[in-house]
Design goal:
Elements (H helix, E strand, L loop, with lengths): L1 E13 L13 E13 L11 H12 L4 H4 L6 H11 L3 E9 L2 E6 L1
Antiparallel strand pairs: 1-2, 2-3, 3-4
């Protein structure tokens, strides 16, 4: 099994739709650190699982310096973003989304 992992740094804002009182329901930003892990049994014709540039184009280009509520149709929690990454990036088996040093959401297929 071949495995590649890409680290992305993304600055983006969001607010959460919650059924309880929280400061997160107000627009705020994070300097997100995202790890995308992709795997494949065999390599493509170029000798890759996936080109790192493709991961950046699919995730970073869509999210960086954006209001995530404007680009996603779902509540942009770290958990939902991690699942979106796994569903969007080919061969993705795991996405880790860090809002801050102590707050990390992970989605694994």
């Amino acid at each position: 099994m071949y495995t590649v992992r890409k680290r992305l740094e993304i600055s983006a804002a969001h607010h959460l739709q919650l059924d309880y009182e929280s400061k997160c329901t107000h627009l705020h930003g994070h300097n997100w650190i995202i790890y995308v892990t992709c795997q494949a049994e065999t390599l493509d014709k170029n000798g890759m699982v996936i080109d790192f540039k493709q991961i950046k184009e699919l995730v970073h280009a869509k999210m960086d310096h954006q209001d995530l509520n404007e680009i996603f149709s779902f509540n942009p929690t770290a958990e939902n973003i991690a699942k979106w990454i796994c569903d969007t990036v080919p061969h993705c088996v795991k996405a880790e989304v860090r809002e801050s040093e102590g707050n990390v959401a992970v989605y694994e297929k």
